[in-house]
Input
Amino acid sequence: MTEKSDRYKQQMQKKKLVVDAAIEQADRDQGLLLVLTGNGKGKSSSAFGMVSRALGHGMKVAVAQFIKGSRDTGEEAFFKQQAGISWYVLGEGFTWETQNLERDIETAAKGWQVVRQLLADSDISLIVLDELTYPLKYGWLDCEVVLADLAQRPAMQHVIITGRAAPLPLLEAADTVTELADKKHAFRAGVKAQKGIDL
Ligand code: ATP
Ligand code: MG
Output
């Protein structure tokens, strides 16, 4: 064995001890609250990646979308054909499309009643609340009420919340928070939304 590969082996042995110890420490099962936020691309698509994983394991999944643009997405078309998933469109469109505060509040409140039922159903293992941060940010939904309802959910139910500008109390309540950074986006170079990538 060369000196280089010997050193590499020793390094990896040390690393394995550290990793094994860390893995051994994490010994609990728990329903997780995940938040995917930030200005970079990849929040909703990451959530849908986890939806695929859960469905692949035969778990029951629900997706609730709080902001629905005018265009149909590939994920909606695809997942609606799959068994084990229910799909709810609870928003009417972007705020700059609706331009009506009272209506946005009413729509969000009705939508949250639907989510409450999902949160009460322990058969559902994963719930995605896509773009929920906007109703929170604009005050259509009370963050405290949302957090209280989330806290009451079944112990093994996972919830993923996506959207920019997640409020601080939500970040504090979450178990896993990922902030996607916007380093570059083709949109700013004049490329419109591309099928299969953006929708
Ligand atoms: P995706 O659904 O692709 O994972 P996202 O959920 O992170 O994106 P949203 O804020 O929900 O992002 O925006 C949805 C749409 O806006 C997508 O078409 C996405 O490509 C686009 N988008 C995301 N980030 C940016 C950005 N920084 N600049 C311009 N467009 C963006
Ligand atoms: Mg999104």
